[in-house]
Structures are given as structure tokens and as C-alpha cells.
Write a structure and sequence with these properties.
The complex is a heterotrimer of chains A (about 280), B (about 500) and C (about 500). Chain A has 13 helices and two strands. Chain A is globular, with a radius of gyration of 23 Å. The N terminus of chain A is likely disordered. With about 500 residues, chain B is of the alpha/beta class. Chain B contains 21 helices and eleven strands. In chain B, the strands form two sheets. In chain B, strands 1, 2, 3, 6, 7, 8, 9, 10 and 11 form a nine-stranded mixed β-sheet that branches. In chain B, strands 4-5 form a two-stranded antiparallel ribbon. Chain C is mostly helical and about 500 residues long. Helix content of chain C is about 80%, strand content about 0%. The model of chain C has no long low-confidence stretch (mean pLDDT about 85). Classes of the chains: A mainly alpha (about 280), B alpha/beta (about 500), C mainly alpha (about 500). At the A-C interface, helix 1, helix 3, helix 4, helix 5 and helix 10 of A face helix 1, helix 4, helix 5, helix 6 and helix 7 of C.
Chain lengths: ~280, ~500, ~500
């Protein structure tokens, strides 16, 4: 028996053993993290893996000490907006680069691609100055806007859209559809896996962003999760056990998204040669 | 698809609206003032007592709130210079010269004199921490010298005599070797150390050497005395293993509250001595009753201790200037100073409160008496703040010093090379800053001239006018050595 | 006329679709970019130029850049940045390996019974361990046993899903949480890594002392033999590449030089002076190159001189660290028993000058294997047409041959993309890590360019230097990406 994709021999017990061992290696640090989340304050500075007794009350404690749900809601809404804006604008740009013919298109695309090389740090300081000027410091918009437009998303979707047969939009054009209608009704639905992939990448990336929100936000009720959780590991003292409990909880929504979306995720990526 | 996007937009809009509407407003009839500090019951008590004090003084009430979520040093700086700082800010270490330099702190010189929280109202040694170029920008909240805390029980258990209050490096080394040998069973991995850290500054100053010269124009760490001190501490670290490498020192530096493992190691005897401030009581009291003593850092020659602590400054962009300044006045009041004595969170900013019985001999805490007395004595008699130069930031000096000293520990530099590099690199920073800032350049040129006058006088064996010596260490050192001209009586 | 009108319309439509993205891009990328370029040539210092102190800015020309270039620590930090990048090929190989393994796992209900039996056995064994050792001592083994049993059953039932999720797990805690977690893991006093290593190393030290001669001779011997085998394989490969006209003379010289480099280090570690060892490297590399290139190709020179350079770089990036490790074994193995006499201490990880960078690289590897790169590879693998494999099977190709002749070239665009992005992000990386884990120490060994930029810009407030350093970083990224495109893209497109 062979696997249809790689024509490799199908999985046997050996392969499963290898996978389990590797998985345990990957999971090891998390096991420590979750175990530590059940420790008491003093035990958390102790090298033993096991807590003396499982302190489930650490989890309610997290909600008591910091507004965890508020942080989570902030994170979800901010990352949600960023994802939505990025998917929409990137899809439009990708459509233009992949499916429309216009002079200078490829040259502009490469220029645009080149901006991926710019270190984000170069722009960090001036962007902050801009935010001060626009009065966006300590606002949700100040976190959403700078993250909402990316060359990476455009690139990913362009590669995907190149793989959609040309005949489809030609047929639609013959039926008298305009470019916008073709985009909305033909290309976008066909790009679903690509859109989902970009959405997941963007969402996860933004869900984890730390330094920018750290310097931008001032009101504690507007903090996203990573900044909020780091209150447990800051000048005000280290509550390792609560930090670990908080991080453990913050991972849950991502795992759920991933489990349900992973097949779509893999289908959504087409990386041909950059020349396209 | 269209529907999906519309649903997304709708859901996100609803979410945003919800988040926006549920933002807690600042509903308060009083002016709301924010103070960036840690949110623990000590600070909450301070807020309560502040409002009591306002009432007792017949001053208008304010709603002072603690902001513990913006303590990140970078964030304080970046937001502060951009106009969105908090009304009152705790200042530690580097922030005491960095923040005033940016202009983001209110100049409170006049108010300090008028309302009784001028540099004359606290320890004279702290002048450099709360002023810059002769102007006052903050007032100490808690202060004191750093000393070694001795866990007497640990020494007794090992059959060793606890260290004396004052000792030289040889005595330190001898006892340290005994301690490490006794505390670690042979053939096992070393788990117990004599001390957590040794202060290079104290040892250098014992030999009459500070980071900078008398006027702050030159870094003097390229001195052979520095090389000798660094080599000695390197040997204690790498060869005698009296102290751990600075592996956690970096982590500790990020963790000002020091609630890491240091205290539990002190508790369990894995550190015989820990070097820290008087505030450690707030960490140790909950751990039980120890038999305690205190010792100075080891040093030859000139006795000195490292003085420092947190101060509070008023943000220049505050809307409540009057009220915020009142808080500094409160820090100089009896209400506050008695509170700090009771909390044992460092020494009170006003020196006379360290002479009271409440401080020196708290009832029911007899085990603490030797430590209170030692800290009171060290702070009043030998405490000196770190040498600062107006021409280079403390954070830069500290980073370079740390990096080069660690290179020495890693065996990548010889002591002489390390000392030379410290001098060269810090002096290069001074030169660069002076070249760029015309304001600094004028001051620098003036100071260079004065420095040459000082050196000429010293070479001729003459005394120097006190106003010439601006460096914190040299001011004290010159006075004790009798190198200063007697101050003219007004 | 009409033609031009329609062209104009097409351009307008095309640009119209771009507009939302481009506008945002202009506002939040191009404007800050222009500003940072401008700042790099000024003395902007937030100490003197902020809303409270509005002193006038002055242009300082290239002074910020000369200040950087004349400071040795800047070069040190640049070196650190590149050193940490050496982990990239391993991360890529890890992601590819993980993806290859994952595609082989499929749902396998027939094996369920076997898996259940195995899982039960694992559970019983770990339960016995728990009973024997007690919760505090052995609880963690029980938990791992439980997890293993669960994974096994889940893996058989769901196909790759569960493994895929677990491999991707590090990505869920990306960023600060990872750094905090690993800082705690690496803590020499309270961290679980050294807690686990200490007894192992004590046992090992004891074993070394019992059988000192075996280790004193065996370790260097084994390392030496392995190194020679590896080197021999690479020489044979080079010869074949040359013969097949897959590698030009430049590529051969590069391959030879990379091969000779570890030998030079070995000579140096064995006590030879640095210049002599360097000379040795040059001699060996030249001799090897001449030996290979002087042999006539069976059908004459048919490829460019620099053909195959990227392959040599890729191979070298994996080969050189391996050979260095083996060389260290040769050089230091003999001294092992003496070193073990005092007991072997587990490394001080982030606190040790020599270990800090490898510690960071291990963490990065853990985080990178199951990251988006693995997803990209999984996608790439599923896009390979099955007919290619069918054809190869007809020719009776071995699995190694199938990999090198079908999978690897088919994945070349993905690898290229991952490599380019890896270089771009790798060069910019390290500042959040340093901020949270090491503060750039010890002795500056984990200060990367980006952490330096952060310190200058946000801690010291010298925006001029920070921007200048950022532009140097940009130049580096740009040059490396160009090189990638020049050498890598050609392969990817072949």
C-alpha cells in the first residue's frame, strides 16, 4: 500500500512511535508550563516539575488579579479587525496583480514585494511619532491601522490566484460581468482556502504582537493579552504560576481554530516560483 | 461570501462598540491623578494616608490612583516624551538622570524650598539623585544604603562566626572560602554560595576611585585600581566560587522588586549573605523571624556604602500641577515618614525619622534591631550615591561596564584590558555627546578648566574650594581627607 | 486612440483594486520609512528633541554611520546577528523533515487495536512507575506516559491531525510567552532543564571515570572517523557535481573552502597558531579545488563558473557546524576524563558566554520546526503531482533518489521562499528575545543588531544612531535577498 501523495509506504507502528516521541519533545515545555500553572507562588521557583498539590484555584486567581477576559476580548477584536482589513485589501491587490492586465503591473509588484525586506524596526520609531501626531496613542486604531496592510498577504494571495484557471473569468466577462463582479463572485469564492490561510497567519501573528501594543497603550483596559499577561512578569513582581496559567488559557482559542482549519490552511498555499 | 464578510464587519463593530462603551470612565468629582508605581498594599496605604494628610492640612482632596500597568521603563520614557505620561512617576536608578534630562519632569526647586521638600530636607548624599544641574526634579520616597544581610542562623549551623560589620577583602575572602567549603558537601555540585553579588563600586571607592573624576568630565575606570578590583572579584567568582556568575544579575536588573529566588535562597541558606537595601524587610518579614545582622561590602581604606532608592517626580505634562506637587510635600511630612518607618520599606526620606525608637527598635521585632541600626548608621555616615557625569547617561555607563566586566569573567579580556576599554568607551561617549550638544559643550569646557585647576591645587598640596568638586564621591572623599577649603561663613 | 483609452481604463481598474492596500501602505510604511531615512542623518535625540525640549535638529551627514562603523561593539553585534542565523538551515531542514513525516501518517483504523494495546501497556507501565515512585517524584513520567498513550490512539484515529497540531503548538505561544517560558526552563538554579540534566551528567561523569581510557581514546577516534567519512562523502559529491557539470569552478572552490574550514579550527584547537592554521585551510582548499577542477570533464565545460553555488552554501551551512562539532570531539575528547573528575556541571545556558547563543538557537529551532514553515512545506508536498512519483517508481528509484530527484526540486520554490523570509526575519530578530531573556548579555553575546537599535532608540533615546543602524540592517537584508534572488531563484525556477 502506498500513500497517494508521496507514494511512500503507509504509516506503520514505527512511524507512529517516531511521531509520538517527536510530539512529546515539542510538547515538553508546555507540560512544564501547565504543571507550573498549578503550583503555589513559592513552588514556582522550585525546579521540580510536579506541584505539591494541584492548585486549581490559580485559574480563578488569574481572573481576579488581572481582567483576563477584557484582555482576551481586546486581543480578539484587534486581531479580528487587522485580519479582516488585511484579507480584504490584500485580496483586492492580489487580484489586480494576478488577474488584471495593466502596464507596469509586474514592475510595481516587485517593488512592492521588496518592501517585505524592510526591517520593521526601521519604522518603529517614526511610526510611533506619527501616531503621536495623529493622536492615536492609547487607541485601538493605533494598533489596528499600522498592522492592517501587508505585502506578505498580497504575495500569498497572488500566488494562489495565479493557480485559478483563466477561463473562469473570461467566461464571466463574456456574460458581461465587470471586474468588480468577477472579483467578488468568481475569484474571491475560489480563493477561499487562500483567504483562510492568510487569515490564520495574520490572526496568529497579530494575536502575539507585544512590543508595539506595549509602547502604544496606556490604559490597562485596552491592553491585548500578551501585554496584559506580562504584568505577571514585570517590575511589579513575578507571579510565575499565574503567568503560566494565563498563557495556558490564552493558547486555547488558537488551538481550536487550528484544529478545525488545518486542512483548509494547507490547501490555501501555493508558492510557485516568484516570477509567477 | 459577501454575507460572511458583512457578518464579520458587523460582529467586529459590535465588539468594538462594546469594548469602547465598557471602558471604565474616570467618574470622579475630584481631580483624578495617576501615580506609576507598584500596586501592593504598601502603596495603597500610602495613598490612603496621603488623603488623610490632605484633610489634616486643610488642602483640597484629590483622587490619587495607582497605575501599576505602565511601569515598564521603556514605556515610561517613550510615552513620557510624547506627552502621555502619568502625573506622578516613581524614578529608579537610570531614570533619575534620564527623565529630568528629557525635560519631562517638572522643575520643583522653588516649591521644594517653599513647601519643605528641598534637597536640604533629606539626606545630603541624595542631592545628586534628585537634582540635575542644580535644579530639583523629584523627592525621595524611600532610600538607604545597600548592605549585606547576614542570616546568622546559617552561619551558626555551619559552625562559623558571622562576619563583622566592617571588613576588608582579605577577611571577606577567608570567611567566604570557609563558608563555601562548609556549606557544600564534598563531591557534589555546588549549590550554596557565600554572597549573591559583590559591589565593584564599593571596593573601588574604598581605594579612592570613582567612575568619574571630580567634575564628571572624564571616566576614570581605566585606572589600575579598577583592574585590581575587577580581577579580585573575578577570582572570587570564577575560581573561589564565592558568588554565582552574574547569570541572574541581568534578570534581576529587569526585576527591580527582586522577588526572584534571592530571598528564598537566603532563607534556605544557599546564600550566606545577600546584598540589598533596607526594603528587603517587606520580602523577609512574611518569611518568618530570622536572626539577622548586617555587614558592609568588603573594602580597603575609605569606608563607604552605596546609597540610592526610589524618588517620585511630577510629570511636566500634568493637568494637576498643584496637587501633584502636594504629593512631594507629603513625602517630606511626618505622616508619610512615620508610615514608611512602620512599613520598613527602606528608610524614610527625612533623616531624623531614622533616629527614632520606632525605627531602631520596633516592638516585638527584636531580631531586626541590629539591621535597622546598621542601616541607619550606614545611610547617615557612609552612604554615597553613584558617580554621575552630566555628559553621559547612567544607563550607557552601566551597559558598557557590565558588558566589559562580563567579557573579563568570560576570559575574553585581561583585567588591564577591561579597565582600559571601560575608560576608552565611556570617554568616547562623553566626547560624542559634548560634540553634539552645544549646551553641554559650554558646561564641559568650563568643567575641564576647573578640573585642571583642581589638579594643579592637589599637585601643589593645596586645598580646593568645595564648590569646585561636583562628583558625589569626590565631594565626600575630599571632605573626609581634609582636602577642601573651609567653607566661608556667610 | 481607442486602444489608448482602453489601456488607460485597464490601468485605472488595476490601480483601483490596489488602492486600499497601497494607501495604507503609503501611510504606515512609506511615510515612516522616509522619516527614518531622514532621521538617520540628523542628531535627533529624544532627550533634546521632544515635546518638552524643542531644540532645533541639525544634519550631521554620515556621522551617525561613521560612529557605528568605528565602534567595535557594532561589529560584534553584527557578528552575533549572523551567528544566530546559522540556525536557519537546521530549522528549515527540521520543518521539511516534520512535513515529510506528517504526510506519511494517514488514518489507519485497522491498526487501532494494536495501538490500543500498546497505549494500554504504556499506561500500565507509567502507572506502575507512579505507584513505585510516588506523585512528587514520578508524577511527571506518568503524565508523559498518559500523553504518549493518548497521542498514539489519537494519531491512529485521526491521521496526522493530532501530530500536526502538536507540532504546531510552539507557534501558538509565539513571542513573549515563548521567551518567558524558555527563560524559566533555562534557569540554572530553578529551571527544569538543568534539574533533569544534573543526575544524568553525574552518572555520565561517573561512567567516564570508571572507563577513562575507553572515553579518552574512543571519543576522539569516533569523532575523527565520522568526520573523515563526512568529508569523504562531500569530496565525492563535489567530484560528481563537477563531472555532471552541475557545479562550476567557483562552486567547487567554495565547497572545498567550507570543507577545509573545520580542519583549520581543529588545528587551532590542537595548539597551532592562528595564522598557521589559516594557511593550512588555504592550502588544503586550494589543493582540493585544483585536484577536482584539473580533472577533465567527460564532456567539457558546459556550465557557468558559478553554477551550483547556492547548493554548496546550503550544504556547507549544514556540514560545517557538524564537522566543527566533531572536530571539537577530536580536540577535547582526550581531556574528557580529566574534566569529569570534578563532576560535569550542566551548562549555565543564558548566563554563559559560550552557551548563550546555542541556547537561543535551540529555542529558536524548537519554535521554528512546527511553525508556518512546516505548513508551507505540507502545502508544497500536497501540490506535487503524483505522476512524478509513479514514473520514478517505474524506474525503480530508491526513496533517497525519489527525494533528491523529485521532492526536493519540486519544493525548491517553497524552500526559496522560506529561506528568503527566514533571512529577512532572522536578521531583524532577537530584540524581544534579548529584552526578555538576556538583556543582550553575557558580555554582549546575545545582543543582535535589532536589540542594539532598540537600546539606542528606546532606552538611550538616540534616534539618529538607531535609525542609522536600522538602515545598515536594511542594507544587509537587501544585499542578502538580492544574492538569494540571484543564486537561489535560478535554482527555484529551473
Amino acid at each position: 500500500m502506498t500513500d497517494p501523495a508521496t507514494q511512500a509506504p503507509r504509516s506503520g507502528p514505527g512511524l507512529h512511535t517516531v511521531m509520538v516521541v517527536l510530539s512529546l519533545l515539542m510538547v515538553g515545555p508546555f507540560v512544564w508550563m501547565v504543571l507550573t500553572s498549578f503550583k503555589s507562588f513559592t513552588e514556582a521557583a522550585d525546579p521540580a516539575w510536579m506541584p505539591g498539590a494541584f492548585r486549581w484555584e490559580n485559574y480563578p486567581e488569574v481572573f481576579r488579579v488581572i481582567p483576563f477576559l477584557r484582555f482576551a476580548a481586546n486581543s480578539l477584536v484587534i486581531a479580528g479587525w487587522v485580519t479582516l482589513l488585511q484579507v480584504l485589501t490584500s485580496a483586492m491587490a492580489a487580484y489586480s496583480f494576478a488577474r488584471l492586465e495593466w502596464p507596469g503591473r509586474d514592475r510595481i509588484f516587485f517593488l512592492y514585494l521588496g518592501t517585505m525586506m524592510l526591517p520593521g524596526l526601521v519604522m518603529l520609531i517614526p511610526t510611533f511619532q506619527l501616531m503621536v501626531r495623529f493622536g492615536l496613542v492609547d487607541t485601538y486604531l493605533g494598533l489596528i491601522l499600522p498592522a492592517a496592510f501587508s505585502a506578505f498577504g498580497t504575495f500569498l494571495l497572488r500566488q494562489f490566484m495565479l493557480g485559478i484557471p483563466k477561463a473562469l473569468d473570461e467566461a464571466a466577462e463574456i456574460d458581461g460581468a465587470g471586474k468588480w463582479q468577477i472579483f467578488w463572485n468568481v475569484i474571491l469564492p475560489l480563493s477561499r482556502p487562500g483567504l483562510i490561510t492568510l487569515a490564520i497567519f495574520t490572526f496568529m501573528g497579530n494575536y502575539h504582537s507585544f512590543f508595539w501594543p506595549l509602547v502604544m497603550m496606556k490604559t490597562v483596559d485596552k491592553f491585548p493579552l500578551p501585554v496584559g499577561l506580562m504584568l505577571f512578569d514585570s517590575e511589579r513582581g513575578q507571579a510565575t504560576h499565574l503567568l503560566m496559567a494565563g498563557v495556558s488559557m490564552s493558547v486555547v482559542p488558537l488551538i481550536i481554530i487550528f484544529i478545525f482549519m488545518q486542512r483548509q490552511l494547507i490547501r490555501g498555499i501555493q508558492i510557485g516560483a516568484v516570477k509567477g | 461570501m459577501k454575507l460572511f464578510f458583512v457578518a464579520c464587519i458587523l460582529a467586529l463593530s459590535l465588539g468594538s462598540a462594546f469594548l469602547h462603551l465598557t471602558l471604565p470612565g474616570k467618574q470622579s468629582e475630584l481631580p483624578v491623578m495617576w501615580w506609576i508605581t507598584a500596586d501592593d498594599h504598601y502603596k495603597q496605604e500610602i495613598v490612603t494616608v496621603f488623603r488623610e494628610w490632605l484633610r489634616d492640612e486643610g488642602l483640597p482632596d484629590v483622587d490619587l490612583r495607582i497605575d501599576n500597568s505602565n511601569q515598564d521603563a521603556t514605556k515610561k520614557l517613550v510615552q513620557g516624551v510624547s506627552g502621555v505620561g502619568a502625573d506622578l512617576m516613581d524614578l529608579y536608578n537610570f531614570q533619575q538622570d534620564l527623565f529630568p534630562a528629557t525635560g519631562m519632569l517638572l522643575d520643583v526647586t522653588e516649591e521644594g524650598k517653599r513647601l519643605g521638600f528641598s534637597p536640604d530636607d533629606t539626606y545630603p548624599a541624595l542631592r545628586d539623585d534628585i537634582t540635575q544641574n542644580g535644579r530639583q526634579y523629584s523627592f525621595p520616597r524611600n532610600t538607604g544604603s545597600a548592605l549585606y544581610w547576614v542570616n546568622v542562623g546559617t552561619f551558626r549551623r555551619l559552625g562559623l562566626t558571622p562576619p563583622p560589620f566592617r571588613w576588608n577583602p582579605d577577611e571577606f575572602e577567608a570567611l567566604g572560602k570557609q563558608f563555601v567549603a562548609a556549606a557544600n558537601p564534598p563531591g557534589t555540585r555546588q549549590r550554596a554560595y557565600f554572597v549573591n553579588v559583590v559591589s565593584l563600586d564599593v571596593m573601588r571607592r574604598g581605594l579612592g576611585l570613582a567612575n568619574f573624576n571630580e567634575t564628571g568630565t572624564t571616566c576614570t575606570l581605566d585606572d589600575p585600581r579598577n583592574a585590581a578590583v575587577m580581577e579580585r572579584v573575578r577570582k572570587w567568582t570564577v575560581e573561589d566560587r564565592l558568588l554565582p556568575t552574574r547569570e541572574q544579575d541581568a534578570a534581576m536588573a529587569a526585576d527591580i522588586s527582586g522577588s526572584g529566588s534571592t530571598f528564598s535562597h537566603f532563607d534556605s541558606g544557599r546564600f550566606g549573605l545577600i546584598y540589598t537595601g533596607h526594603w528587603a524587610f517587606i520580602m523577609l518579614r512574611p518569611r518568618g523571624t530570622f536572626e539577622l545582622a548586617a555587614a558592609e561590602g568588603p573594602q580597603d581604606g575609605f569606608p563607604n556604602t552605596e546609597m540610592g532608592g526610589g524618588s517620585v517626580g511630577v510629570y511636566a505634562g500634568t493637568k494637576y500641577r498643584e496637587h501633584a506637587v502636594r504629593f512631594l510635600q507629603f513625602l517630606g511630612s511626618g505622616h508619610f515618614n512615620r508610615l514608611i518607618v512602620r512599613q520598613a520599606d527602606s528608610l524614610a526620606p527625612v533623616p531624623r525619622y531614622a533616629q527614632t525608637d520606632e525605627f531602631l527598635r520596633p516592638v516585638g521585632r527584636e531580631n531586626e534591631w541590629p539591621v535597622h541600626q546598621a542601616f541607619g548608621r550606614a545611610t547617615a555616615e557612609t552612604g554615597i550615591t553613584v558617580s554621575k557625569s552630566p555628559f553621559v547617561l547612567q544607563s550607557v555607563v552601566y551597559r558598557l561596564e557590565m558588558e566589559i566586566y562580563e567579557s573579563l569573567l568570560a576570559g575574553r579580556l585581561t583585567p588591564a584590558e577591561a579597565a582600559r576599554q571601560m575608560g576608552e568607551r565611556i570617554n568616547a561617549e562623553i566626547q560624542q555627546a559634548v560634540r553634539r550638544d552645544p549646551g553641554l559643550r559650554a558646561l564641559y569646557e568650563e568643567r575641564v578648566v576647573r578640573q585642571s585647576h583642581i589638579e594643579a591645587k592637589r599637585a601643589a598640596g593645596e586645598r580646593v574650594p568645595a564648590a569646585w568638586v561636583t562628583d558625589a564621591f569626590h565631594r565626600t572623599y575630599y571632605r573626609v581627607q581634609g582636602w577642601l577649603e573651609p567653607e566661608a561663613q556667610p | 486612440m481607442n486602444n489608448r483609452r482602453s489601456e488607460l481604463r485597464r490601468t485605472l481598474t488595476g490601480v483601483g483594486f490596489l488602492l486600499p492596500n497601497i494607501l495604507g501602505f503609503l501611510a504606515f510604511t512609506l511615510v515612516p520609512l522616509a522619516m527614518s531615512f531622514f532621521i538617520a542623518f540628523t542628531d535627533w535625540d529624544i532627550l533634546r528633541h521632544n515635546i518638552f525640549r524643542r531644540e532645533s535638529l541639525s544634519f550631521v551627514g554620515f556621522e551617525n554611520f561613521t560612529w557605528l562603523f568605528t565602534h567595535p561593539e557594532f561589529w560584534h553585534y553584527m557578528g552575533n546577528t549572523f551567528f544566530l542565523m546559522l540556525g536557519l538551515p537546521f530549522a528549515i531542514a527540521g520543518s521539511l523533515g516534520a512535513a515529510l513525516l506528517l504526510t506519511r501518517v494517514s488514518r489507519h483504523p485497522a491498526a487501532l487495536r494494536g495501538a490500543l494495546v500498546l497505549a494500554t501497556l504504556v499506561l500500565i507501565a507509567s502507572g506502575l512507575v507512579l505507584l513505585a515512585g510516588g506523585m512528587a517524584e514520578m508524577g511527571v513520567w506518568f503524565i508523559f506516559g498518559l500523553l504518549a498513550a493518548g497521542m498514539l490512539v489519537g494519531g491512529v484515529l485521526t491521521g496526522g491531525t493530532i501530530y500536526r497540531t502538536l507540532f504546531y503548538l510552539p507557534h501558538f505561544t509565539a513571542g513573549v510567552a515563548t521567551f518567558v517560558l524558555w527563560k524559566k526552563l533555562y534557569n540554572p538554579q530553578t529551571g527544569p532543564i538543568n534539574f533533569a540534566l544534573t543526575p544524568v551528567l553525574e552518572q555520565f561523569a561517573a561512567a567516564v571515570q570508571v572507563a577513562a581510557p575507553v572515553f579518552a581514546v574512543g571519543v576522539p577516534l569516533t569523532a575523527g572517523v565520522l568526520a573523515l567519512l563526512l568529508a569523504g562523502w562531500q569530496v565525492r559529491r563535489l567530484v560528481r557535481q563537477w563531472d555532471d557539470a552541475a557545479a562550476g569552478s567557483v562552486a567547487v572552490a567554495l565547497g572545498a573552502a567550507l570543507l577545509a574550514l573545520p580542519a583549520g579550527f581543529l588545528l587551532h584547537w590542537l595548539g597551532m597558531a592562528r595564522p598557521l592554521a589559516t594557511a593550512g585551510v588555504i592550502v588544503v582548499a586550494t589543493a582540493l579545488t585544483i585536484f577536482i577542477v584539473r580533472r577533465p570533464r567527460p564532456w567539457g565545460p558546459v556550465c557557468a563558473r558559478d553554477a551550483g553555488v547556492s547548493a554548496e552554501i546550503a550544504i556547507g551551512l549544514g556540514l560545517v557546524p557538524l564537522l566543527l562539532l566533531l572536530a571539537a570531539g577530536v580536540a577535547l575528547g582526550a581531556g574528557l576524563p580529566a574534566a569529569a573528575a570534578g563532576g560535569i556541571q550542566p551548562p549555565n545556558w543564558l548566563g554563559d558566554y559560550a552557551w548563550a547563543k546555542p541556547a537561543i538557537m535551540i529555542m529558536a529551532l524548537w519554535a521554528a520546526i512546527g511553525s508556518n514553515n512546516m505548513i508551507l512545506y505540507l502545502a508544497g508536498l500536497s501540490n506535487i503531482p503524483p505522476e512524478l512519483y509513479e514514473a520514478a517508481d517505474m524506474d525503480g528509484a530508491s526513496s533517497m533518489q525519489r527525494f533528491w530527484h523529485i521532492t526536493w526540486p519540486q519544493l525548491a520554490p517553497v524552500t526559496f521562499f522560506i529561506f528568503v523570509m527566514g533571512v529577512i526575519y532572522g536578521l531583524q530578530g532577537g530584540f524581544e528575545m534579548a529584552r526578555i531573556m538576556t538583556l543582550g548579555g553575557p558580555a554582549g553575546s546575545t545582543t543582535t543588531l535589532s536589540y542594539f537599535i532598540y537600546i539606542e532608540g528606546f532606552e538611550t533615546g538616540r534616534l539618529g544612531y538607531a535609525s542609522a543602524a536600522a538602515w545598515v540592517l536594511f542594507a544587509l537584508v537587501f544585499i542578502l535577498s538580492l544574492l538569494n534572488f540571484r543564486f537561489g531563484n535560478r535554482n527555484a525556477n529551473d
